[in-house]
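Structure (tokenized):
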């Protein structure tokens, strides 16, 4: 018995040290912190741009959208925007979207024109084969759209590794050298091998830039864009391509801004609601459940600290919806303690000792705690998988909170309670470990 209590004391001290380190090393906000909190636009203000992606000529829509997201992130990061949020939403019956969408959040940028300029007109680079009757069509109708004269090859800017400014060694004319990644290089080699003697047109934003004839297979993943470029034009094109040639066209669908004052008010209101709710909850727990209630408050503080630590380390972008999910999870974290305490009260009524009643209370409550939390986790996973960006923020904080609440209820509360459970029972001690109007 003494050996068991010694282990419990050591566990309790280690838990306190762990939680304290979490607070002092991670939670304290300071300039240049390694793990700062990441807040959404609705809490700090900024601009949200929603783009509609044209996937009509793309086979691998998922891959193209992932590449589009990476390209836009890279371009936004170049301009030093703090914590940009770039995400995609798929079309489908569940999401309610008719088109693939790209959502770009720019914290601190409240000028929509400036935000649109940051995204810019990044070029859509494509390599297409000329259709057999392209020349005849152009002769008959010179105004025929260029796109209709060329056949998509699947080779686009998404496979571009880098672009560089070059000069023709014979003429000195500026041109743009391209280098593809491994997958793009293999596709380029396949195209040039199978279509010797054909025109492989290079289109930028749907405009024909160059139409060279394939002389032989090109295996070194290299290509050139030639044309009547001035050095300045070629340099600008290289810069834009290196910023990110979009794998598919996008068009601005909607935009909105949230003022910094409004965002700060929403954040302060959310934090204030959480603090008031926590104080009210703590008073109720201590009043109704007495000493175990005080322990549950300590466990709840540990839960909040651990949750915020994980939110920083993942990191989780906290939005108004996410903050609501976190506050909701605090209430759910109490459910497990309530179940344990009520089961313990039933065992005390049967005349069992405080130690045995607590032990039996945890054992009997575990199945209910497990089932209720698993159902909440499943709900959070489904919401995160199928929901919009706002719903995903709510689902993520809720899901993380539920998982941590299981840990704090079963581990932290249990360790602290058994660390203070009396060896012998007295009427006063049984009163402290009872609850409600039960003595």
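Design, position by position:
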């Amino acid at each position: 018995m003494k050996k068991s209590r010694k282990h419990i004391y050591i566990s309790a001290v280690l838990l306190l040290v762990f939680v304290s380190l979490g607070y002092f090393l991670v939670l304290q906000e300071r300039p240049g912190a390694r793990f700062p909190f990441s807040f959404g636009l609705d809490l700090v203000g900024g601009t949200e741009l929603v783009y509609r992606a044209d996937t009509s000529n793309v086979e691998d829509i998922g891959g193209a959208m992932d590449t589009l997201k990476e390209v836009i992130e890279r371009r936004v990061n170049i301009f030093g925007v703090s914590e940009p949020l770039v995400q995609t939403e798929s079309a489908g019956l569940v999401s309610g979207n008719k088109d693939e969408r790209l959502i770009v959040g720019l914290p601190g940028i409240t000028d929509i024109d400036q935000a649109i300029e940051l995204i810019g007109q990044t070029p859509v680079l494509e390599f297409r084969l000329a259709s057999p009757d392209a020349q005849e069509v152009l002769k008959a109708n010179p105004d025929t759209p260029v796109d209709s004269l060329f056949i998509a090859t699947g080779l686009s800017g998404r496979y571009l590794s880098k672009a560089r400014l070059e000069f023709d060694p014979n003429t000195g004319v500026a041109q743009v050298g391209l280098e593809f990644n491994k997958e793009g290089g293999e596709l380029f080699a396949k195209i040039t091998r199978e279509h010797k003697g054909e025109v492989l047109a290079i289109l930028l934003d749907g405009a024909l830039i160059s139409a060279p004839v394939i002389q032989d297979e090109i295996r070194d993943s290299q290509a050139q864009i030639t044309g009547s470029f001035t050095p300045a034009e070629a340099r600008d094109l290289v810069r834009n391509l290196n910023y990110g040639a979009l794998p598919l066209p996008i068009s601005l669908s909607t935009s909105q801004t949230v003022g910094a004052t409004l965002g700060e008010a929403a954040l302060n209101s959310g934090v204030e609601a959480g603090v008031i709710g926590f104080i009210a909850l703590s008073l109720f727990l201590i009043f109704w459940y007495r000493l175990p209630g005080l322990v549950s408050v300590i466990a709840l503080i540990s839960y909040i600290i651990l949750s915020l630590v994980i939110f920083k380390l993942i990191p989780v972008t906290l939005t108004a919806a996410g903050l609501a999910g976190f506050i909701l999870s605090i209430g759910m974290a109490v459910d497990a303690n309530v179940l344990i305490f009520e089961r313990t009260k039933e065992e005390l009524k049967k005349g069992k000792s405080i130690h045995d009643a607590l032990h039996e209370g945890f054992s009997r409550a575990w199945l209910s705690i497990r089932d209720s939390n698993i159902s909440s986790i499943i709900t959070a996973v489904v919401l995160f998988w199928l929901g919009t960006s706002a719903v995903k923020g709510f689902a993520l904080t809720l899901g993380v909170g539920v998982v941590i609440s299981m840990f704090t209820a079963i581990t932290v509360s249990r360790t602290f309670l058994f660390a203070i459970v009396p060896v012998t029972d007295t009427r006063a001690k049984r009163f402290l470990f009872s609850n409600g109007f039960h003595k």
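Reviewer-requested clarification: The mean pLDDT is 78. The chain is about 55% helix and 20% strand.
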